[in-house]
Batch of 4 targets.
Target 1
Amino acid sequence: MLQNLWEWLLSRVFGEGMASGVAVRGTEFLGKEISQAVHREDQEVTRVRLRAGESYTVVARPPATRRERKLAKSERSLNRKFEALNRPTKSQLRSARKLSRAQRRIGPATPVSKRGRKRAQKEAALGRRFDQKMRPSKQQLKVARELTATTNQLDASRAVSLQLARRKNRIRRRRTKVTVYD
């Protein structure tokens, strides 16, 4: 009934003919899309199979406070910076290739021969140089410390806000009993 009234109203607004039919179908399509966007179906988060005596608790986190948003933004920024600093540099890659080549060459050589000893010495020197190049810089260590501190502060802040929300929304009724039958 309502659908017929809607079609009649749209035909009155747009008139008769092919263009009005297209306009009616277009407005109906847009109406359906809008209603689907507004009235979304429930989304399944997880499936849990409970046994007798088990319980399952779902905790929804309260909205982030200004401090949490600021800390989260800082954490994302530090994370990007940390990842950028930890990308291997050209000299580190070059040193790794040289060390790999030296280790491949040392394999077939006998360790007692002159050539074998020379290759072993070269491999040891390249290994020390590689270790030196891979040592984290002061800036990397500083950013890692800042990132750890920021993450800890953010986790603590989120825990406090969750605790406050639990305390604020405490329900004064008996817990519902859930019976699970297998």
Note: Residues 138-168 form the longest helix (31 residues).
Target 2
Amino acid sequence: MKVCESKEEKAQRQVLEGVLSWLRRFNYLSGWRKGITLLTYLLAYALGYSFFRKKGVLVCV
């Protein structure tokens, strides 16, 4: 899959990557069990999906 490289799309992608990076560090340091970690990732995915859907962001293919 090819992703568009406009400044706006890069900025939105950086926000998502930053959130995922923070979650990975938090989960590593907290020592949560896998089930709770999975729920955290699913919640972050749902929040990110709803954010991007509201913005009307499309990925170029």
Note: The chain has a mean pLDDT of 72.
Target 3
Amino acid sequence: MNNNASDNFEYISQLLTALTTESRANRQETDKIELLLKRVSKQCAISYESLGSEVTDETLKNYNKQNKPSKISRLVNENYDLIYQIEQQRYINSKVTLLIQNITEHFLSIKNFIKEQKYVREQDLDNFVYENFESQIVILESSIQKLDEKSNTSSSNLSCIIRQLQTTCREIDWSIIPRGTIEHKQLIKHLQELDENYGIKLVDDSTLESISTT
């Protein structure tokens, strides 16, 4: 059954490509028809706008009656809607994947900075780093893999990781950070980019301003 589902999805993917090509061709034909209508209106001394004037209710009713979509037409339209939704979901999934990858890179940089500067006191550094950063990165990487396999993601997991990192950052004694080093500048950069690009605040504004002062 899974194989059939995979084959069906592949077939739909091929239909998407064909639909895109057909849409471009239809657009070109529409432009040609519009040009012909303009020529006809000019030859008949009728304004082009009048050709598109509002029709009477009776005319519209007769037209709708004669052009009532058949069952096949409705199914085709429903399939087109489904194809559009699938294409839209693929686009969203690609953006979510990129977002998770970018956030993971920022988390890795912050983790490495904290590890190099040895901010954690009275704890085993390796256990602290693993519990608060590496395990979360494993979850993120697992989410990326599942997203590629199943074309979906869980925003709740990402929110949980962000909250844990915010709690960790609140427990750090930022006053002992060496100022003016390359690592210090990179830390500030990552904190600011997470805030500006993704709206993720690992520290509050007053703390960020304090640790940004050289």
Note: The mean pLDDT is 69.
Target 4
Amino acid sequence: MQGGNHMLLEEPVRLASVLAPAKPKVFPSLTKIVGTLGPNSHSVEVIEECLTAGMSVARFDFSWKDATYHQETLDNLRKAAQNVKKLCPIMLDTVGPEIQVHNSTGGAIELIGGNHVTITPDLSKAPSADILPIKFGDLAKVVKKGDTLFIGQYLFTGSETTSLWLEVTETSGAEVICYVKNTATLSGPIFTLHVSQVHISMPTLSEYDKQVISTWGLQNSVDIISLSHTRSSEDVRELRAFLKSHDLQDTQIYAKVENAEGLEHFDEILQEADGIIISRGDLGIDLPPERVFMSQKTGIHKCNMAGKPVIITRVVDSMIDNLRPTRAEATDVANAVLDGTDGILLGAETLRGQYPVDAVRTVGRICAEAETVYNQSLHFKKVVRHVGEPMVHEESVASSAVRSAMKVKAAAIVVFTFSGRAARLIAKYRAPMPVLAVVFPREGSDPYDRVIIFEKIGDSSVVKIIECDDSER
């Protein structure tokens, strides 16, 4: 049974099997879980539990807190990883062109629906129900009457009473007068302002981002940089050049697509980036609700065909305050896996949520269950058809390795590599078993990569070795 890009088992699944106890798994879910570390996931003990529960990548978001705080958290992560004997890559999330609303009073500001409020770039003015200061001087130049503005707390879900919707009624000099569409209470020092489908004349890679990357990022040899608000392929090229100039050329770039501009230039961004993060939070503001699903499904499909990792965000927002996700959220996570997503990013759920460990564990279990009914055979055929013929040598070897592993029901695929290219190509075909990459140093290495397939039959093993050229092209 299948529909659209959904990957379900071709043979129907007996509904009674849903009631059967879950079978023990040797490996956790193949879908990776990115956990954002913060106040409620800062300690060594909690991070240990998150790692044990299935967290694969630790995300450090510099929109919140400074380098000193994040360094303390990273030091705790390293202790925790050593204690549980698990590797955990580091993801640095940039700030980018983010407009912040500053509440210098720190007190709660209640705005009543039906009233008007003025947005001003004058930070010396005290925030109130009548005026909100922002750290951006050109808002009045880029918005027009009728435009929609959204103000929410950091990592907003969109459903809190702190989420404020405004409609621009007029501009006066550098100030913007707005109609308040709903009643909301803003409590906290900083909020984020989002303008729907309007280009903001701020650089994607800010000076603050550069300073953080060249200091904290370099010092800690970050594995991945999540480039927030990526709007074009030029944004990715600029960051890559900056990384190379600071001896961080091995750091991967995951372009965070979270606005209409990013969607418009998705194909060119995908070509330049190492991976994609589909940020459904901000996309849900830029797009009508009925079109969000299509951006997710189409984006995931394009990434799958290109053989590049894709991660989605905002899946179990209710677990910020609740021990269990809603039924809709649980289904959403499973459907994302069936769509072909490679990873799930948890933001507020682990940063300020009350149940960070449970959020990781629950999402991991849902992913693992969805993977049991994922139609890998259909995905394999789609990728082969997309690649076309004649295949280049590396594609041919990678696809053959996965096909052989599937036929012998292999326990794992082990790739000996020095550039990682062979492992990434094999992962592109989404083998239903783990792919383990063993990295050789470049100096004195054999110019070929070996792909080893293990078949477990009782106490015996069958090993097949295939060599493929893994040179970067």
Note: Residues 99-195 form a domain with the M1 Pyruvate Kinase; Domain 3 fold (CATH 2.40.33.10).
